[in-house]
Amino acid sequence: MCIKLKDDLRRFIHWGPITLLTLTLIVTWTVIHMNSMWWAPGSSLESVLNYALIWIQTFGTLYNFIRSLMVGPGFVPLKWHPQLTKDKMFLQFCTRCNGYKAPRSHHCRRCNRCVMKMDHHCPWINTCVGWSNQDSFVYFLLFFMSGSIHGGIIIVSAVIRGIKKRWLIRYGLRHMATVHLTQTNLLACVFSLGVIMGTVLASIKLLYMQMKSILKNQTEIENWIVKKAAFRRNAYPRKGIKPFVYPYNLGWKTNMREVFFSTGDGISWPVLPDCNEYSLTCEQLQQKKDKRARTRVFRCIRPATGHWVPIFSQGLWVSLQIPCTDDPRIALKPDDIIHVTRIQEYWLYGEIMISEKQKEKIRARKGAIRGWFPSCCAIEICEDSDSENDLAGGEPVKEQDTAAIESVETDQEIIDFMRDFSCNDGKKAKRLHIE
Ligand SMILES: [Zn+2]
Ligand SMILES: [Zn+2]
């Protein structure tokens, strides 16, 4: 319990929560200060209500912010497995958590855990938005947005009145000339208005995305899986794959109830009558199998530093073409074997294949094992059509093998094979040819 509290508190020590809390503090101070000159509470009931609203919005924002950060998204227990052994074949295995991925859960590399109904990792709360904190996150956005709009109106009104101060006095409206603009409070107003404009736009966009996700009961990641499911069926019409029915959309009222009055456990979910609890995970396994079929194997020929802008090791041109994503960059050593799944002209995205020996040292290895690296650091290894089919996963995967898609044992066989292959027949290793 004590360790959990320490972990929860540690989430605050990050640029996201620190920046958000600091900005909230500055803006709230500015709003209260300007409001005290513009419409001080006490002169009328409306002024008291206006003042109370500022505090309700501030309290609501901070309470839901802290709650969504402290409660967290809900993590799948380490080494988790389904109750029935036969159900393991429908699930992916997470080597990091050493357990199966429950339906709707995904591994977050920043939280380093499998997250229940993972929506996205939010840097502002320094954790994921998922099963147990999505409601608090939405309330936080609502309070944040309404508080920012309200604060913006107060600051603008106060500044206008401050600018008109001489005019008000000249026309006998001295009781309204209460706002004194100084260099400090004017600077605070300009800064706060800038922050408010940014936060309003960001919170409207986030709120829209969250509400869309809640009403459809489909997280951003699931949305992507559904798109890939449609793509798979359009790309291979001859295979006659059964149409995919997304199983969790039970109508907007039930979907809303699931998030805001949740009674589930974050692992088992109600589904549509024609689906079962593994409909989505089976589709994910099939998509992984397709991805393996498209995977190409590369061998490192020049070390890659893993730097984001490798200007000294790779030169200016490669550094100017860096992929515009926050995926990690990986460091490579000569002879590392990489499974490449995304290809750009100057950069490749893949996963370093880990041998049994390296597996023991994996915890000591610095940096990610999956990410981008400069394409000139590796060459593609080509082989004859039969072995290519085997290596690329073209061979049908047996049902009992599907759960072990990420298993290191399978990788080890390929690593050994590729090392022998590239040593024995160098002619078959060719320079990278970009598509
Ligand atoms: Zn995991
Ligand atoms: Zn996360």
TrEMBL record:
Compartment(s) of residence: Membrane
Membrane topology field: Multi-pass membrane protein
Gene Ontology molecular-function annotations: protein-cysteine S-palmitoyltransferase activity
Superkingdom of source: Eukaryota
InterPro entries, sorted: Palmitoyltrfase_DHHC (IPR001594), PFA4/ZDH16/20/ERF2-like (IPR039859)
Domain named Palmitoyltransferase DHHC: residues: 89-224
EC number annotated for this UniProt entry: 2.3.1.225
Alphabetic keyword roster: Acyltransferase, Membrane, Transferase, Transmembrane, Transmembrane helix
Reaction it catalyzes: L-cysteinyl-[protein] + hexadecanoyl-CoA = S-hexadecanoyl-L-cysteinyl-[protein] + CoA
GO BP term (any one): protein targeting to membrane
Broad class of the protein's primary localization: membrane
Membrane-traversing stretches: 12-32, 137-163, 183-208
Enzyme class: transferase
GO cellular component: endoplasmic reticulum; Golgi apparatus; membrane
Family the entry assigns: Belongs to the DHHC palmitoyltransferase family.
Domain description: The DHHC domain is required for palmitoyltransferase activity.
Protein name (record): Palmitoyltransferase
Native species: Drosophila melanogaster (Fruit fly)
Lineage: Eukaryota, Metazoa, Ecdysozoa, Arthropoda, Hexapoda
